[in-house]
Amino acid sequence: MTEAPIAFKTVTLCDKPWVDELVWAENSPSADYNFGNIYIWDKYYRQLIARTGGRMLVKLRYEGKPAFVFPIGAGPLRPAIELLRAYAAWRQYPLIIRGITDLHCEQLEKEYPGCFTYSLEENNRDYIYRAEKLATYAGKSLHGKKNHCNRFEAEHDWEFVPLTRALIPACMDMLDVWTEDNSQRLDKSVANEHDAIIRAFAAFERLGLEGGVLRAEGKILGFSLGEMCAEDTFDVHFEKAQIDVNGAYPMVCRELTRMLLARHPGLVYMNREDDMGFESLRQSKLSYKPEYLLNKYIARWNDG
Predict the structure, then answer these.
(1) How far apart are the C-alpha atoms of 89 and 181, rounded to whole Å?
(2) Cβ–Cβ under 8 Å, residues 234 and 240
(3) Which of 303, 304, 224 shows the shortest CA–CA distance to 271?
(4) d(CA 73, CA 174)
(5) Which sign, positive or negative, has the C-alpha torsion 19, 20, 21, 22?
(6) What pairs with residue 12 in β-bridges?
C-alpha cells in the first residue's frame, strides 16, 4: 500500500494552540470549526486532523460515512483541496466536504467551477442571534421571554454565577437528571450530547470554555457553556435548565449573554448552534428570534 497523502492524527489537547491560530484566521461564525467542538464531539464523529500550510484538514465519520470538513484557515485553498482529493482517492471513497457556508461555496466555485454539487443541510444550520437582544429581550417579539424572566425573578431568590471547576460536580448531577427526563423525547442524541458535555467539563480550563450557572434557593436550575468562535461571535455549546421551572431557560440564556457582553466588548452575536432536526428544538430556537440562520451545505465532487 502506498503512503497516505495526509498524515491525519487523533485530536488531543496539545493541538489547541495551532488549531486556534487557524480558527481565528478563518474568523467564521460557524460552530463547526472551533477547537472546543472538535475535541468534545470527537467520540461521536471520530475526527482526525492535520495541518497543511495555513489550513486545517479534518476527516470525520458522519452517520457512519467518511467525510471531510472545509479546510479553514488562511492562504491558498487549492493545495488543501487537492490533498483531500488525493486522500479520498487513496481510500477509494467519494470526496464529500461538510460544513460548507455560503462563503465557502463561493471560494470553492472560484477554484473549481462546476466541479462540486452542493446540497443544503437544513438540520445543521446555526441559529445566530444579536447578543444585545438576548441580553434584554427587548421588543414585542421577545416580550414573552421577558415576562417569563420577570416571573422567575419575582418567585425566586436567585443568582447567576460564572461556571467554575468547583461547580461542575453539581452541574453534572443536574445533567444526569435532565438526561433521564429527556431521553425519550430526544432519543439517542441525548446520550451523545451527555458524553460531549462530560468531556467538556473534564477539560473545561484547558479548552478555555466560558459558562455560567443559574441557582435559586441554593439549587442549580441550569447552566450553559461555550467559547468565542470569531472576533464578534460566541458559540454556545450547551445550555441546560430545568424544564419544569418556569423561566429557567430564558434566564440562563439572558444571564449568560449579559456576562459575556461584560467580558467581551466586541461581542455582537450569539451562535446557539443547530436544531439537530428536532421540531421541538427548532421551535424553541426560533422563539428567541434569530438574526439569521447560517446555512451549511454538503459539497460533493462530481466524478466523471
Answers:
(1) 45
(2) no
(3) 224
(4) 38
(5) positive
(6) none
- Helix, strand, coil percentages (3-state) for the chain, rounded to 5, are 45, 25, 30
Task: Decide the pairing of beta strands 233-241 and 269-271.
Answer: parallel
Architecture of domain 9-124+296-301 in this structure: 3-Layer(aba) Sandwich (3.40)
What SS3 state is found at 283? Answer: helix
Tell me the three cell numbers of residue 17. 494552540
Please tell me the predicted confidence (pLDDT) of residue 187.
Answer: 63
Half-sphere exposure of residue 233: CA atoms within 13 angstroms, side-chain side: 23
Q: Which segments of the chain belong to CATH 3.40.630.30?
A: 9-124+296-301, 126-273
| CB 27, CB 230: distance < 8 Å | yes
Q: Which of 203, 298, 215, 292 is nearest to 255 (CA)?
A: 215
Would you state the pLDDT for residue 62?
81
Residue range 126-273 forms a domain whose CATH class is alpha beta
DSSP collapsed to 3 states, 109-176: HHHCCCCEEEEECHHHCEEEEEHHHHHHCCCHHHHHHHHHHHHHHHHCCEEEEECCHHHHHHHHHHHH
From first to last of its 304 residues, the chain has per-residue pLDDT tens of 588 999 999 999 999 999 999 999 999 999 999 999 999 998 888 899 999 999 999 999 887 789 999 999 999 999 999 999 999 999 999 999 999 999 999 999 999 999 999 999 999 999 999 999 999 999 999 999 999 999 999 999 999 999 999 999 999 999 988 887 776 665 666 678 888 999 999 999 999 999 999 999 999 999 999 999 999 999 999 999 998 899 999 999 999 999 999 999 999 999 999 998 888 889 999 999 999 999 999 999 998 5
Rounded to whole angstroms, how far apart are CA atoms 69 and 59? 7
- Cα–Cα dist 6/48, whole Å: 10
How far from chain centre, in Å, is Cα 190?
16
